[in-house]
Amino acid sequence: MLPMLAFVFAAVGAVAGNFLAPISAYYQLTATTCSGAQATYEQNCQLDAPFTDPICTIVVNGLHKQAFKNSDCTGILRDVQPQ
Length: 83
Known about the structure:
By secondary structure, the protein is an alpha+beta fold.
């Protein structure tokens, strides 16, 4: 029974994740400045996620820029993958 419940919750979580609003984040303009809150491309971006998870990105003029949580270019957002 427990494995079945775990599967149901995992499936519901995966489907719900596809409908979450993208997270606002900043991208680096130069070595010292960040700019503009824009939406990340990924749905499950989190701060302080394991470094093994993919870095979240923002599309700027067709380029995928690394997404930062804060306007001072700190806090790298990572795309948390279901295990």
